Amino acid sequence: MQNVNAQKPAVRKLMQLLLLPILALFLLTPQADAADRQRINTFLEITGFDVALDSIALNAESAPQILGLERSDFGARWTDITQDIFDTQIMRDIALDLLEKSLSDEALLHAEAFYGSTLGQRLVAAENASHQIEDNTTTQIAGQRIIADLVREGAERVDLFKRMGRAVDSAETALTSLQEVQFRFIMAATDAGVIALELDADGLRALMTEQEDEMRLALQTSNLSASAYAYQAFSDTEIAEYIDALETPLMQEVYTLLNAIQFEITANRFEALAYELAKVGQGEDI
Fold first, then answer.
1. Which of 211, 247, 248, 271 lies deepest, with the highest CB count within 10 Å?
2. Which of 131, 3, 126 is nearest to 55 (CA)?
3. CA-CA distance, 194 to 189, in Å (whole number)?
């Protein structure tokens, strides 16, 4: 399952996200033909969204940086805490609960038909491998070199990757979603006493607004690099075929829903992390 990734240190791997109101819209209007849980499990495996969900756990590495702290500030239990909070089964169960209420049979079958094809399964394998890389710096550097070579050659592939980025975030909400995850985490950490924030909620949002241009550029750059690295083994024709599939109305419906769910799970887990860290105290074991 294609996704959008942020690679700047304080925001790395917090993308593939849409805003909660979009998710609420789906849940307030449940699909009459919503798929059952077992079919959704199969859907997650075929599309690779199961691995994309699991990769949310890698987001924990950026958590201290968002708060202006270091991982070591939270003592020896950091790893145990993050493994508990970002438990993959918990995250999958949340996703299944939400998808049961909102994923239509028509959208499910449409996505499965493409991702279950020969090209689709190759794409899923490449995307899954990319999602599972813990040290993203190496892939970013490699992707940047690939993009630099493509630009130098005047290759059409760069424009294809840009078009792909628009297809997986057609509402252009990725940046806003990233900011919302960070906002909810920082405010939860403040409420829990993990940090002392000098700004109030309005002040924090104003600061984030000031940083939008820089963050937008960072996201665009990182998305291109991530795509260049992940799809090295695919021809321009195959990538164009993938983009055509992503741009269909039913696939857009699927991505809007899945991105909204992944956003809510990420924000929810970060809020839970903030309150759990408050129990530790900086530099202390539980």
1. 271
2. 131
3. 5
